[in-house]
Design goal:
heterodimer, A: about 350 residues, alpha/beta, nine-stranded mixed beta sheet, about 45% helix, about 20% strand, B: about 625 residues, alpha+beta, two-stranded antiparallel ribbon, Gln_synth/guanido_kin_cat_dom (chain B), ATP binding (chain B), ATP-binding (chain B)
């Protein structure tokens, strides 16, 4: 058994055509991320232990995947050089990211990356981007969207989200469609919204600026073309827009509010050519996804430092070519089976 | 409804004599075209919709609704802008079979940005408004699939008597003057189909049997005992079918392989979309036992002779033919799906051999030689002699008179257009909102299929079975359809046991659309997964959510199909006598109410659900155009 926690990076590779994920279409992002991590860990550990994998999909009933991840943890910890600080890079052995990327000329592809990070650490962000570039082996990325959710903002939002989910859970599944229509996001009480926005902005804008400066350097070097930011109100976006050397080209808002976009945000985006895009990511994706890997399979991913989701689109054809995650995690000893 | 060549139509005798000529040269033209274009690649997604409308005239004093035969007056006005500036119009207008019909399409195809989904409805609204401005008082245009009293006495304005003894149709019910007079193609087709068949077309649709429904339905079975069935609504004219309105879609694929993939993958969706869009339960003033137009149109252009239909031994004809030229497809086109072609594909063996010699692969050669078992039924004197290297009219002649659920369309010669696929089963919906919803749903599905490499293919005999089930009364809620359990089969995982029955199971439309736990994830959850991986702008996502919600609710039964709504309207009408008859007054009230729903003055929670307002917009936000141009610099 593993004695201490290990830092690892996990690159899930292309999760688009993983059969398990497809069978559960419509699952939320947290599930998709945690499933992808678990699958990656179990596939990787199978290979480490010389176990057979059937073309990227192991026989993964919950029991077997637990066993696999158990082996994985033991093997990394018992390796002579293994220490708490050793960074192990975990990937899926039969990933097809590079095959998919090679199928189209780079100019026909659009690569978008969203970075989830809860601390305003420039080194963490740099590490994250380096991992993304390594994972994709590409010269440049078309756009990077920053989702910065420091813990103090997180806890408050998570509570609100829980309430919303409770309110809507009686309708047909928890699909975004039903969420979107039933969610009570009022655009009439603009005062209250602005207050909340302003408070949130105070809490996150300083951190965003620290991280933004890193992203701007990437843009200057030509390695990233456009920058975006997720879940900031109209006021905050305006401030960032005014401050930034490389202005935000994209503002991402939660899908649940796409029919009730605050008019000020909408107007600002129109006036400044900012693309107002939707996402379906929970604000505290990192902690939620980490918990899910723990509680369900006992894999032992008890913390995610950061996570980047990459999505590659084929331009002008509306085709999603591939999608995957790179995360930095702390792998802990597997929990005992109950 | 196909190619509109200008010129002078040949007589049936002349046309018949040239049938073999058209076939031979049509095949050579296809071979030449294929050689030039088989490697064409890199085309982007472009797509467009076609909506057909009926011009309805209300007489509020007499409480009557009729079809107004004014397409010939309206079309030149509607086409003025196109004639003046064809590159920059927002809409294109074309004639259709009925003199009371017009067909509208967007002026330019939509492109591969998701933001394009948000301009579909606005463009449909624009088209409807554009046509509405030039109507006479009392006239409206309605995208209803079938005019309920089509073929009833005096169903037209101005009124016209049928002419059973002469003319091109010779129908007991449908006058020749109801056929669009502005182009000779329509009457020529009518006449040639009847002549080729050797008798009038015969459409028998089972009547809906209510408490007081009379059997025989009317005196048709006395007048034409060999054609009319007593317990059916009998129709004897091409106009009963080709006079229906459809909602069609065409997509451009990036290359021929993708076009084949989409053709194959969308084929199993045809019956599902037919049932989901069901909108035509009433024919010739009677409630029937079907909800859709498909079999009606199929029979309305069935040009097969008695020999070909298997009623007499083959003597003068070459083939026993199992289906009308308007019917579901007979084969998949991708080599990997050949094993699912489990019905007899009637084809011309000589032409097949020639196509193979010409370098066409087996499934495509089979498909084309299957289309080419048909004779031309419309030929123009100017088009008889052609340059097979550069012309494609003979190929198009046969291709465009095979009206199947799917159409595989080669690029036109010397054009910037690529390989395309046409999706043809949907019935026209009452409102622009609904039509936009169905259109976006299908186009989104094509993107999902390509992104996730989904596999919907099942034995084609099962698709045919589904086509019949889809048309039954209330099929959307009550029928089960063959469907693949596991649609995600990465090639390396596919267990090649295609005949194993547990690959397919019977599911309701609800299960197919919204998912069935542990069996199939559902088309809408798949679309949602796809969208979560795309960059969708807020307004577009809002609209798409409303569209998906409509489809989701139709599938679950929370709201009705147009067919169920109409059926319910009739059977609960105070003057309905439980005899399946849709009287002048009921028809008037039905269409008046439908028109009110269409214009938003009458709420229709049972048909549309509540609060479905999209954020449709006429233009794409500038930020997205900017984004595209930035990327193009690289």
């Amino acid at each position: 058994m593993l004695k201490s926690a290990s830092k690892v990076t996990i690159n899930t590779g292309n999760v688009l055509n993983l059969i398990d994920i497809k069978k559960k279409a419509g699952q939320n992002v947290t599930e998709e991320l945690s499933e992808s991590i678990k699958l990656t860990l179990s596939e990787w550990s199978s290979v480490q232990n010389g176990l057979p994998i059937q073309n990227g999909v192991p026989e993964n009933s919950p029991e077997t995947s637990q066993q696999h991840s158990d082996y994985m943890v033991v093997s990394t910890s018992t390796a002579p050089s293994a220490r708490t600080e050793t960074l192990v890079n975990i990937t899926r052995p039969h990933d097809d990211v590079h095959i998919k990327m090679a199928e189209e000329e780079r100019k026909n592809l659009k690569i978008g990356v969203k970075i989830f990070i809860n601390e305003h650490s420039t080194s963490a962000l740099t590490e994250c981007l380096q991992n993304v570039f390594t994972a994709l082996q590409t010269e440049y990325i078309d756009n990077v969207i920053l989702a910065y959710n420091p813990d103090n903002v997180n806890s408050r939002q998570a509570r609100n989200d829980d309430d919303n989910v409770k309110n809507t859970s009686h309708s047909t599944k928890a699909s975004p469609i039903s969420l979107g229509s039933n969610m009570n996001i009022s655009s009439t009480d603009g005062e209250a919204d602005n207050d909340a926005d302003a408070r949130k902005c105070e809490a996150i804008l300083p951190g965003i600026k620290v991280l933004w400066a890193v992203l701007e350097d990437y843009v200057k070097e030509g390695r990233v073309q456009q920058l975006g930011v997720a879940d900031v109100g109209g006021g905050c976006l305006r401030k960032l827009h005014a401050w930034a050397r490389v202005r935000p080209s994209i503002a991402q808002i939660n899908l649940a509010s796409c029919c009730v976009v605050p008019p000020s945000l909408h107007t600002f985006c129109r006036a400044n050519d900012v693309q107002l895009l939707t996402h379906a990511d929970p604000p505290d994706l990192l902690s939620q996804a980490a918990v899910k890997t723990l509680s369900e399979a006992g894999v032992g991913c008890n913390n995610l430092d950061w996570c980047a989701r990459y999505q590659v689109h084929i331009k002008c054809r509306g085709v999603l070519a591939l999608k995957g995650y790179v995360c930095k995690a702390t792998i802990a000893p597997k929990l005992e089976k109950k | 409804m196909g190619l509109l060549s200008e010129g002078n139509p040949l007589s049936w005798e002349e046309t018949k004599a040239l049938a073999e000529h058209v076939r031979q040269h049509g095949i050579e033209q296809f071979i030449n075209l294929y050689k030039k274009l088989e490697d064409r690649t890199g085309d982007v997604l472009k797509w467009g919709d076609e909506v057909e409308y009926i011009i309805v005239k209300f007489d509020d004093e007499k409480e009557r609704a009729t079809v107004s035969l004014r397409a010939k007056d309206l079309l030149p006005q509607l086409q003025e802008k196109e004639v003046a500036d064809p590159q920059n119009v927002k809409s294109l207008w074309r004639p259709e079979y009925g003199a009371y019909m017009i067909e509208g399409t967007p002026g330019k195809p939509y492109g591969g940005l998701l933001a394009h989904f948000n301009i579909v409805e606005a463009n449909m609204q624009y088209r409807r408004a554009e046509a509405t401005t030039i109507l006479h008082p009392g006239e409206v245009i309605m995208s209803i699939t079938n005019f309920p009293r089509l073929g009833c006495p005096n169903f037209t304005s101005p009124p016209n008597p049928p002419t059973p003894q002469d003319g091109v149709t010779r129908s007991l019910f449908f006058p020749d003057d109801v056929i669009f007079p502005g182009h000779p193609r329509f009457k020529t087709l009518t006449s040639n189909i009847r002549n080729r068949r050797g008798e009038k077309v015969a459409i028998n649709i089972p009547v809906f049997r209510d408490v007081h429904t009379k059997i025989p339905v009317d005196n048709s079975s006395e007048l034409e005992p060999n054609a009319a069935k007593p317990d059916c609504v009998y129709m004897d004219a091409m106009g009963f079918g080709m006079g229906c309105c459809c909602l069609q879609l065409t997509f451009q694929a990036c290359c021929i392989t993708e076009a084949r993939t989409l053709y194959d993958q969308l084929a199993p969706l045809c019956p599902i979309m037919l049932a989901l869009s069901a909108a035509s339960p009433i024919y010739r003033g009677f409630l029937t036992d079907v909800d859709c137009r498909w079999n009606v149109i199929s029979a309305s252009v069935d040009c097969r002779t008695r020999e070909e239909r298997g009623l007499e031994p083959l003597k003068n004809n070459k083939f026993r033919i199992n289906k009308s030229r308007y019917d579901s497809i007979d084969s998949y086109l991708s080599p990997e799906n050949e094993k699912y072609n489990d019905i007899n594909i009637v084809h011309d063996k000589e032409l097949y051999r020639r196509l193979r010699e010409g370098g066409i692969d087996h499934p495509l050669a089979l498909h084309v030689s299957h289309l080419f078992i048909r004779d031309t039924v419309s030929l123009f004197s100017e088009k008889v002699h052609q340059d097979d290297e550069n012309d494609t009219d003979h190929f198009e002649n046969i291709q465009s008179t095979n009206w199947q659920t799917m159409r595989f369309k080669p690029p036109p010669p010397n054009s910037p257009i690529g390989w395309r696929v046409e999706f043809r089963p949907c019935e026209a919906q009452l409102t622009d909102f609904e039509n936009a919803a169905y259109v976006c749903f299908v186009v989104l599905l094509t993107r999902v299929i390509l992104s996730y490499h989904l596999n919907f293919v099942m034995p084609i005999s099962k698709v045919d079975e589904n086509m019949q089930r889809a048309q039954r009364r209330n099929a959307c809620l009550e029928q089960k359809f063959w469907w693949r359990r596991d649609v995600g089969v990465p090639a390396d995982l596919a267990k090649q046991n295609t005949d194993s029955t547990d690959i397919y199971s019977e599911m309701t439309i609800n299960e197919i659309v919204n998912g069935k736990d542990g069996v199939f994830s559902g088309l809408i959850p798949l679309i949602e997964s796809y969208l979560s991986g795309m960059d969708v702008d807020a307004d577009t996502h809002c609209s798409v959510q409303q569209y998906l919600k409509l489809i989701q609710r139709r599938a679950s039964g929370e709201i009705s199909t147009m067919a169920s709504w109409m059926r319910n309207f009739v059977t609960t009408h105070p003057q309905y006598k439980k005899d399946s008859v849709v009287s002048e007054k009921i028809n008037y009230d039905l269409l008046k109410t439908a028109y009110g729903i269409q214009t938003g003055t009458i709420p229709a929670p049972k048909l549309l659900g509540g609060g479905n307002v999209s954020k449709t917009n006429e233009n794409i936000p500038k930020a997205f155009i900017t984004m595209m141009s930035i990327r193009d610099l690289n």
